[in-house]
């Protein structure tokens, strides 16, 4: 069931989204060669605790997962697309890191992700990140009253194909509110004019995932969570929570 939020409820989601933005900014500032993924998770935990927020990631266990998720961020390095479990792996110069984070505050949830280079960026990684971010911006621009979910999907998917990127099947954005994952599902490719109509008060997490090698295939690692590109190419994952309003899309996961 799709839940439409009131203006007051969207304001509450904005506060949860602000905490997410703060956590992602703190993690990116702390990320450097020699820093472990587990240490970055501790940074995010500190931000959530300081804001009086909890994590919708910690303990989350969807049907595909063999264990509850043990951290408050997903930290996915290089060919890891998403759902990376923070470990003792220490970042190296030139790594490409995707960080996904959520926060629950006063009963409402925010969810966002970013991808960035650690240390010295590779030119091809900079292009991948820029193109994924541009696709997110195109998807957000399509999230207007009178459009449909398929218009968002088409904007993201078209950007992927223009750039020669792969897009993982069956993964994409989602509705969000009291829970991290709500209806409707937002595929990262689709046909315009199809799907659920966008109405004021609809809160969505839009999250392009681009695979640099151009193939769509992925596989899941031994931990049952981390998703990798099948061809070993690098991946980017960038996400914002937004609200559909009469005045246009409202970004909720920004500082």
UniProtKB/TrEMBL annotation:
A divalent metal cation 1 binds at residues 100, 111, 239. It catalyses: Release of N-terminal amino acids, preferentially methionine, from peptides and arylamides. Substrate binds at residues 83, 181. Keywords: Aminopeptidase, Hydrolase, Metal-binding, Protease. Residues 12-246 form the Peptidase M24 domain. GO terms for molecular function: initiator methionyl aminopeptidase activity. The keyword Disulfide bond does not apply. The keyword Metal-binding applies. Transmembrane segments: none annotated. Removes the N-terminal methionine from nascent proteins. The N-terminal methionine is often cleaved when the second residue in the primary sequence is small and uncharged (Met-Ala-, Cys, Gly, Pro, Ser, Thr, or Val). Requires deformylation of the N(alpha)-formylated initiator methionine before it can be hydrolyzed. This is Methionine aminopeptidase. It comes from Streptomyces koyangensis.
């Amino acid at each position: 069931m799709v839940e439409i939020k009131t203006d007051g409820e969207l304001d509450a989601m904005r506060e949860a989204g602000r905490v997410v933005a703060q956590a992602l900014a703190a993690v990116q500032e702390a990320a450097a060669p020699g820093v472990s993924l587990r240490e970055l998770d501790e940074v995010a935990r500190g931000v959530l605790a300081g804001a009086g927020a909890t994590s919708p990631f910690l303990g989350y266990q969807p049907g595909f997962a063999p264990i509850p998720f043990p951290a408050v961020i997903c930290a996915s390095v290089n060919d890891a697309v998403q759902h990376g479990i923070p470990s003792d792996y220490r970042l190296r110069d030139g790594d490409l890191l995707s960080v996904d984070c959520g926060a629950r505050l006063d009963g409402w949830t925010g969810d966002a992700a970013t991808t960035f280079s650690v240390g010295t960026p590779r030119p091809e990684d900079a292009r991948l990140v820029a193109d994924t971010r541009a696709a997110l911006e195109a998807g957000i621009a399509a999230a207007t009253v009178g459009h449909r979910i398929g218009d968002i999907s088409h904007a993201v998917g078209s950007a992927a194909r223009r750039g020669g990127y792969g897009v993982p099947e069956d993964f994409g954005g989602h509705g969000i509110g009291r829970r991290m994952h709500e209806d409707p599902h937002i595929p990262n490719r689709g046909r315009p004019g199809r799907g659920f109509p966008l109405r004021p008060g609809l809160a969505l997490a839009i999250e392009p995932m681009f695979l640099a090698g151009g193939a769509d295939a992925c596989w899941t690692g031994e931990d049952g969570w981390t998703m990798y590109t099948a061809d070993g190419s690098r991946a980017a994952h960038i996400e914002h929570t937004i609200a559909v309003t009469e005045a246009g899309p409202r970004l909720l996961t920004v500082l």
